Amino acid sequence: MITLLIKATRQSKDKLFCRLQSNMSEELLQRVRDLEGEVGRLKAQLREKVKEGTGGEMAVSTNSDGKKDTSKPDAGGRKKGKRGSRDRPFDFSAHPRRHVALRLAYLGWAYQGFAVQENTDSTVEARLFEALLKTRLIQDRQSSNYHRCGRTDKGVSAFSQVMSIDLRSTQFCGGLGVTLPSNVDADVKNEVDVAELPYVKMLNRVLPQDIRILDWSPAPQGFSARFDCQSRTYRYYFPRGALDVTLMAEAAKRYEGTHDFRNLCKMDVGNGVLQFQRTILSATVQPVHKTPPPAPTTADPYDLYIFEIKGLAFLYHQVRCIMAVLLLIGQKLEPPEIVDQLLDVKTNPRKPQYSMAVDFPLVLFDCHFEGLSWRREAEEVEHALATLQHHWTQTAVKTQVIHGMIQGLDSTGGTSSPHCWLMEGTKQRTYRPLLERPRCESLESRIEHFVKRGRLEREEGENGGETVHKGKRPKHSHHTSISSVLPDVSPSF
Amino acid sequence: MITLLIKATRQSKDKLFCRLQSNMSEELLQRVRDLEGEVGRLKAQLREKVKEGTGGEMAVSTNSDGKKDTSKPDAGGRKKGKRGSRDRPFDFSAHPRRHVALRLAYLGWAYQGFAVQENTDSTVEARLFEALLKTRLIQDRQSSNYHRCGRTDKGVSAFSQVMSIDLRSTQFCGGLGVTLPSNVDADVKNEVDVAELPYVKMLNRVLPQDIRILDWSPAPQGFSARFDCQSRTYRYYFPRGALDVTLMAEAAKRYEGTHDFRNLCKMDVGNGVLQFQRTILSATVQPVHKTPPPAPTTADPYDLYIFEIKGLAFLYHQVRCIMAVLLLIGQKLEPPEIVDQLLDVKTNPRKPQYSMAVDFPLVLFDCHFEGLSWRREAEEVEHALATLQHHWTQTAVKTQVIHGMIQGLDSTGGTSSPHCWLMEGTKQRTYRPLLERPRCESLESRIEHFVKRGRLEREEGENGGETVHKGKRPKHSHHTSISSVLPDVSPSF
Asked: Region Disordered: what ranges (chains A, B) (predicted)?
């Protein structure tokens, strides 16, 4: 990434804004990222200009200031189709729409998270919508029927993020998920099958290199990436260090099943998350390299392991909190039973204060759906693979350079604690057991806080129990008790 | 490094300069690096303020604008000694001087090279001299009797770079390499042995995290890191990909011995390098992990290898050119015999055009000297180790995240060519054998070029042969023939 960084800034000649505020450093970094993204997009476009075009579809480039540039003239002199200049507004209503699912992968280290934010456009979603608008696949976000499966935080990557959305289509003859334009009669315009738009290629051409669409699938009209997800799988990579990985694997199993995870997440009561029961289908700790493990005395602290956890839906920061506790268990600072104690919300209704694990090793690895048929374009996969290999080469080689130096210094048998760097914040000199630490606010207390401010309302239920729901009480209110409020299934970390 | 980057820019509140020139992108990146270094220095200082001091020695911090800040008061209230404010110039002549060797390690990826440059202060040497001046270990560079063993290029790292220099000393009683102040009589001031200044700790406190002094050694007065080096060893790390590493190992041996390497370097005639004979003591290709190699069909393309080369002195870019040719041999684009052909300067007096290997995998791993006794401070080594482990954790984890995605995509058995990313420039579609390519200028032609411009002079020798030497002919000229001009033993790449 550093090499990409150097290349981007050297080639850009955009204006550098001048600020003397204290937040300038955030904008400085964002500026560098913007430039990096812009170079990636321009390179992608240049590559396509050298190869064959895609039957008239042109990507309109946008420089970092948001101004549109018309694309370079095609060397072959073929008919170009719409140039997408401001003078000719695109008539979306003349085209069919198609409800689709898109599967994407991204490296999250250069972004401020997946979801769009007010104070920065350095988010994965922002780049996605830039690309969707540039390619005229959607008219605007609001009318695009967009749902996302998960929402990853700053620094978190994804190998299988899924979104559902309505895109422009060529399928005047109809098809799965296709809606014809209102002025078109399905019988009259009985066209020969034309190929659908090459969604994956069109988007990848204009997306930054570290965000890739892997495949797409037609989807029935009611399909939602958010609500129809069958399971979500996360991976957290970590070095063995001096950790007892066997103990960690044993402790991980204790998370499996349906439990109240309020002590293992960041409670998001303000956003209406009032119920913390979640189901973990599996939680394992495995070495990356599947060779038979050596005896513990010869174990290499620089071996890498994966904590893999699969569930229906996850709470905010749940995986990182779960991981933090596993790391404490691995260091033998807590016994494996601490997991059961933290899941016992009757005995422990309030979360002990502890830091979650850092962001960069976390990957949303899989989102599973039934009933979709993913259409992969081999050329696009090859290209994504090449980009990943390029990136891998840089990081893997640098990793070895550093490791060579560590080995050179380590001959005196110094302490090897690479796992220490996975906890947020500074390390305390004396370890304080979790259950002896100060506790965070309880759920009831947080609810009370928001009820007082009118953001949540309490009311008497039919059976005498109390219920809580968001916002002002509507006319025809739908009563739900605290214990059965549906989880907000927009899992995020 | 990216995480370090983010932390540095967030914490700095220094002024952001405003330029609209086309070279602003270089300065932008440099600015980010400066900030990163500044944070590292400040953190190092803060750490030392918490721990014990060093008996009155204070490091004076300098912010990125070059202004001096006085250090924070010591919490223990101990006597501080000189504060180093501008009002009290330091009297170097009152102190002994000591000729020493310093061994250092650095990660070169964030720097523009080792040697000081005019257009940037983002070099390792610039940081070293900042540190030496801040700690008042030297008065200025010019009077410090400074020699360096090697000069690494932009992006190249070092685990054993050695320099020799005169530093301030406490040794009024004399010692190896010590020169007493002129006004001091060695007999009169026969002080009890005091400890020498803790050079390693003092410098590491104020150096950026990615530059570390490992140890120091007293040195006899005539010792020079540049001229007294017995051998230099470089390592180049690379992934196996689809390379035939056995063939590469066999080809590497052909470089051993004394040869004319003009076709395997970048000729630097303008700087007086006129002779290209060098001696390679060993050249090997080994896997990083010493497990028994699996059969070639099950070889993992993501295994890492080291090309290690040991020689007396090296020419400019010699190792990277050697590596480039080895990579071509490993891809079976050239036979191993090409090495012998390139070393045969009678048959091939002019270098074929080819790109050298990229910079980031290269490490100056060892510089060997006789007669020095390295003094290592355990605490400093622990600290350097911790810093390297922190760095390793980030790169190793990111490497696995990417590798996990590659494995996920690669199930269709796509082509795995991570080694391709090690050559500079773009890959040609059709391979052109080296000996069929256009050739670079010959040595004689280059000499002629500089002779015409007065930077080199030819003259008739005693035995009728021609000689060449740098610059204008001095009054009492020293005749040397072309074939015996001493190599410029300032090895660089």
From this structure: 50-92, 455-493
